[in-house]
Amino acid sequence: MCDAIVAGLPGWFGDPQGISDCAAAVRAHDGLVAIDDGQLVGFLTWEPRDPGAAEITWMAVRADTRRRGAGALLVAALVDRLRARGATRLDVKTLSSRDPYPPYAETRAFYRANGFVEVAELDIWGPENPAVLLSRPL
Questions:
Q1: All domains of the chain in start order, with CATH
Q2: Which region, left, alpha or beta, applies to residue 31 given φ > 0 means left and ψ of -120 to 50 means alpha?
Q3: pTM above 0.85, yes or no
Q4: Which of 37, 83, 94, 111 has the fewest CB atoms found within 10 Å of its own CB?
Q5: What is the spatial distance between Cα 57 and Cα 29, in angstroms, rounded to a whole number?
Q6: Helical H runs in 1-138?
Q7: Tens of pLDDT along 27-39?
Q8: Contact (Cβ atoms closer than 8 angstroms) between residue 96 and residue 129
Q9: According to the 3-state scheme, what is the secondary structure of 42-73?
């Protein structure tokens, strides 16, 4: 089901390696799902990082249900879960504003609206995919 959500978001998931990496994470990482009216509408995966921190590794909400709160609920549920475990920070990496691709401007705006701030520009995915690290305290 998560694979179908990814397939329905070609603006965000157009890279075959990224699609494959996401599919592997959905099957191996801790995760949460959003269900609406009995149907899967979104998911996120995460991994623990340094002591007290975790990172969202993948997140997607079905195209026809975006902007209805499922993504914010997923982040809030993860924050609650991590706080209960004593974590103090949640991170996420996404495409940097150095690449003006519009879908990822929406992604960065979503994370900022959910309490994340841009911490560092990263060159981890090659020059064609500049990254930014966003973080929020828990």
A1: 2-137 (3.40.630.30)
A2: beta
A3: yes
A4: 37
A5: 9
A6: 2-7, 16-28, 70-84, 102-113
A7: 999 999 999 999 9
A8: no
A9: EEEEEEECCCCEEEEEEEEECHHHCCCCHHHH
Provide the 10 A C-beta neighbour count for residue 134: 21
Per-residue pLDDT tens for 79-115? 999 999 999 999 999 999 999 899 999 999 999 999 9
Task: Report how far apart, in Å, the C-alpha atoms of 80 and of each of 55, 73, 107, 128 are.
Answer: 14, 10, 21, 35
Measured between alpha carbons, how far is 119 from 111 in angstroms, rounded to an integer?
Answer: 12
Q: Give the pairing type, strands 39-48 and 117-122.
A: unpaired
Phi-psi region of 64 (alpha: psi -120 to 50; beta: other; left: phi over 0): alpha
Q: How many CB atoms lie within 10 A of CB 23?
A: 14
